């Protein structure tokens, strides 16, 4: 069902099953071989790239962009997902940017508005401190290869580095450095060799090779995080 006469472009091979698309609030682009499962609700502006999937009953508010081979369920509002990342189950994510190869467990949620309605402060890597953003709505920024377990909760304006693994009850702190392992109770260093082992398995599931170039990138981020800080 299409609402409005706004711009709607559907690439060859895309599949849409009994979804509702509202174009009155912005254009909608559905990439090649993408799939929108039944019951999904979409309000533009929205773009999903090739081979991305919206799971059954997904609720998408603009402006939102899904990169290639992304799987999304639950509710999104003003989010950007880079390629090969998954948030396949229920839970809310708003005003957030998710890097490549991330995975979010079912029931993952984030806050995008402080209880006191004040502007959000966000961790800044060059300054190595929290800075004012002048944003009232600001959710989660998550680096490549990071993952969180079921029912993870993120505070307003949380920055998560590269290749972190977050789990446990309670809110993790607003800045989680790269290669951290843990949650609200505290974090330990994520062993780089174990991280590469996991990344290889993740790539294999998509019939891709986690080659030496990709490994060198992760090792460089690890060295910057723990050896050059």
> What percent of residues are in strands?
35-45%
Distance between the termini: 53 Å
So how many helices? 2
The topology string of helices and strands comes to EEEEEEEEEEEEEEEEEEEEEEEEEEEHH
Structural class: mainly beta
What is the tally of beta strands?
27
Low-confidence stretches: none
Mean pLDDT: 96
Q: Please give the share of residues in helix.
A: 10-25%
Structure overview:
Helix content is about 15%, strand content about 35%. The model has no long low-confidence stretch (mean pLDDT about 95). It starts with a strand and ends with a helix. The chain is mainly β and about 230 residues long. The protein is globular and about 55 Å long. The strands form five sheets. Strands 1, 2, 4, 5, 7, 8, 10, 11, 13, 15, 20, 23 and 25 form a 13-stranded parallel β-sheet that branches. The chain has a five-stranded parallel β-sheet with strand order 3-6-9-12-14, with no helix packed on it. Strands 16-21-24-26-27 form a five-stranded mixed β-sheet, with no helix packed on it. It is built from two helices and 27 strands. It has helices at about 190-205, 210-225; strands at about 1-5, 10, 15, 20, 30, 35, 40-45, 45-50, 55, 60, 65, 70, 75-80, 85, 90-100, 105, 110, 120-125, 130-135, 140, 145-150, 155, 160, 165, 175, 180-185, 185-190.
Keyword list:
229 residues, mainly beta, 13% helix, globular
Summarize the structure.
This protein is 13% helix and 37% strand. The chain contains 2 helices and 27 strands.
